[in-house]
Amino acid sequence: MADVAKEAGVGRVTVYGHFPSRAELVDAAVVHVLEQVDVALKSVDLHGPPREALARYIRASWEHTGRSLSLVAAAEKELASERIHRLHERLAERPVRVLERGQADGVFSDDLPISWMVAVLHRLIHGAADEVGRANIHPSDAAELIVTTVLRAFAPGRVEV
């Protein structure tokens, strides 16, 4: 909270006046950033072949996530997973339509529930943020790693074990 106050050029008391806890401050920041991301993702072309459309969505999502790595880490630490999920619901609508088209076209597995595929996609994006934060992968490699992983995981065909 002291760092936020310093960055904002105000005292800690002022920050605590608006946000009684670190979790409430992180929540407000996440809401603000996700509103901006939602607007930005509206411009992503999700037409055309579903695999290519999904790749464009992932790259655009990572572009915004990659700029907010410290906020992603703070949210994972301070907010309940259910709250994080609710905050991302609006963003999840776009890949749902692409995944549905992909299943109908036979390019994505039709034996995986769409809700599961969206959850996996978002966890991979957040997992990549964590790996970048740990310096296990370079930020410029993250989007293609996510795209490759998702397209392989969502490919049609059952896996027998």
Written account of the structure:
With 161 residues, this protein is mainly alpha-helical. 75% of the residues lie in helices and 0% in strands. The protein has eight helices and no strands. The mean pLDDT is 88.
Number of strands: 0
Task: Determine the number of helices (DSSP H or I, runs of at least 4 residues).
Answer: 8
Largest sheet: none
User: pLDDT average, as an integer?
Assistant: 88
Measured between the Cα atoms of the first and last residue, the distance is 49 Å
Helices and strands: which structural class?
mainly alpha
Specify the overall morphology: elongated
- Fraction of residues in β-strands: under 5%
Rg over alpha carbons? 18 Å
Pfam families: TetR_N
Keywords: DNA-binding, Transcription, Transcription regulation
Protein name: AcrR family transcriptional regulator
Organism: Pseudonocardia parietis
Record keyword descriptors for this entry.
single chain, 161 residues, mainly alpha, 8 helices, Tet_transcr_reg_TetR-rel_C_sf, DNA-binding
Write the layout of secondary structure elements.
Blueprint: H1 2-8, H2 12-18, H3 22-41, H4 50-66, H5 69-78, H6 81-105, H7 114-133, H8 139-153
Helix pairs in contact: 3-5, 3-6, 4-6, 4-7, 4-8, 5-7, 6-7, 7-8
